[in-house]
TrEMBL record:
Domain Transposase Tc1-like stretches: 77-145
Pfam family for this entry, one: HTH_Tnp_Tc3_2
InterPro entries noted in UniProt: Homeodomain-like_sf, IS30-like_HTH, RNaseH_sf, Transposase_Tc1-like, WH-like_DNA-bd_sf
Gene3D superfamilies documented for this protein: Ribonuclease H-like superfamily/Ribonuclease H, Winged helix-like DNA-binding domain superfamily/Winged helix DNA-binding domain
Domain Transposase IS30-like HTH, first and last residues per copy: 19-57
Superkingdom of the source species: Eukaryota
Stated name of the protein: Transposable element Tcb2 transposase
């Protein structure tokens, strides 16, 4: 997508460039006032065809373009259930389980659907657990500092 820096509409390889937010607001306002498309085009600083397309698109809604999705809502819900059961699986394992459930989709599609649902595929960092000696030391430190005042705590510098 090419960003538009000036307020003048222009053509890129046979297609009209997208209108800026200001131009769209101007077109909508002037259209509601009953101005002609020629007047609106001059005020907004774009072509009459851009004004016409914007007005017609707003009236009937924008046509959905692109390839249709290969999975249906039911299959997507199945994937969501699989991910929620064990969120720490990687994409490959989830994909195997999803295809075993009867869905015919690629690993990339599986990853894309998970991202669409708001799931991220990250494996958590493995951290060692505290051993008994470390637990004893933590408990002793906490008991030692249990009765400290705010003045004593103000002298402590906390860091990670």
């Amino acid at each position: 997508m090419v960003s538009q820096s000036s307020s003048v509409g222009y053509t890129i390889m046979g297609k009209t460039a997208d209108l800026t937010v200001d131009q769209k607001m101007t077109i909508d306002t002037l259209h509601k006032e009953g101005k002609t498309q020629k007047v609106i085009a001059k005020e907004a600083g774009c072509s009459k065809s851009s004004v016409s397309k914007h007005i017609n698109r707003e009236a009937k809604g924008r046509k959905i373009c692109g390839r249709k999705k290969c999975t249906r809502n039911r299959e997507n819900r199945t994937l969501e259930r699989i991910v929620k059961q064990n969120p720490f699986k990687n994409v490959g394992e989830i994909h195997k389980e999803w295809t075993a459930a009867g869905v015919s989709a690629s690993r990339t599609t599986t990853h894309r659907r998970m991202q669409d649902m708001g799931f991220s595929c990250r494996i958590p960092c493995v951290k060692p657990l505290l051993n008994n000696r470390q637990r004893q030391k933590c408990l002793a430190w906490a008991k030692d500092k249990k009765d400290w005042t705010a003045a004593e705590w103000s002298k402590v510098m906390f860091s990670d």
